[in-house]
Amino acid sequence: MTARAKFILFILLLIIVLIGLFIFGKDLPNDDPNTTGDTIDGLMLGDEASVEETVDMGTTTATYFTEKLREKFTEEIGQPIEGIEPGMLLAAYSSFEPNDFEGVEAIQGIYNVVEGELLFEQIETPEHSAARAISEEGMSTLFLNLTSRLDIQATTTEAVDMLLESFERRSDEE
What we know:
Blueprint: H1 3-24, E1 39-40, E2 43-45, H2 61-76, H3 86-92, E3 109-114, E4 117-122, H4 136-149, E5 152-153, H5 157-165
Antiparallel strand pairs: 1-2, 2-5, 3-4
Helix pairs in contact: 2-4, 2-5
């Protein structure tokens, strides 16, 4: 066998191994240090949560959180016409704090917290009625901020469900 034939055979074997790792590597155990550690009722304890952690059918935990939070809000409070705004969540659930909305993107702006007060900074003009509604990216930021503040890693759909179930409705008397 010539050197050229050996080289071609080596390259073909390398390609087959790489394809095999790509196809079957998804089933290998996860060595990510952010997904191991102590848990409390399925919620991972840690320093930092991962918005990009993938759960069922390629959905990220942040996307799952967004879908379930919207469902919960709609069932318990009602369907907002223009989308959910931070003030609505703060008024409805005692689990949220103004700092959870730091850097949360809206349809036409961004929310910031200055001296404990939640402020909306409009970026696009003219402002329309849905300008202050939290965008998809904003919901991911909210999820990251919330899990960071609570020092949990909600890395499974079950953990996100338990997180949302822990939200307490504010009573009308508050």
